[in-house]
Amino acid sequence: MSLCLSYGYGRWVPGIWGTIPIFQFKQKHPMFKVSPTFLKAVDRIKFFEVPVEEILRIYSHVHEEIDYEYDIKVSSFKVQDWLDFYDSAEVQRKVNELLRPNAKRKMTNALD
């Protein structure tokens, strides 16, 4: 079994990583009672963009209000399903685009 976590991210915010909190050294929030981080190597994370204001609101509810509820679902990871996904024509087309010699240059330019 693994966790499937819906995970919001936004632009960098001074003093905050730009994502919802995944660790807490003081371990005040119930998600961090066992460990300062609740993610394990087998967990799957789904990212989606949210406004910076939402990141700040979530940050406050995790570290100050201690009442934020993470969107976590327990599920099974089936290797064959992942292999079928990876071998699909659409994914292979995108992989080949990234592996082209000019792809690195395009990615670098996109970050500028």
Radius of gyration over all CA atoms, rounded: 18 Å
Number of structural units classed as domains? 2
Number of strands: 3
Largest sheet: 3 strands, mixed
The overall average pLDDT, rounded, is 76
Distance between the termini: 40 Å
Q: What form results from the Cα inertia axes?
A: elongated
- Structural class, please? alpha+beta
N-to-C order of helices and strands: EEHEHHH
Order of strands, widest sheet: 2-1-3
In DSSP terms (H or I, runs of 4 or more residues), the helix count works out at 4
What does this structure look like?
With 112 residues, the chain is α+β, with helices and mostly antiparallel strands. The chain has helices spanning 52-63, 79-86, 89-99, 103-111, and strands at residues 2-9, 44-49, 72-75. The protein folds into 2 domains: 1-77, no CATH class; 78-112, no CATH class. The protein contains 4 helices and 3 strands. The longest helix is centred in the middle third of the chain and has 12 residues, at 52-63. The chain starts with a strand and ends with a helix. Helices cover 36% and strands 16% of the residues. It has a 3-stranded mixed beta sheet, with no helix packed on it.
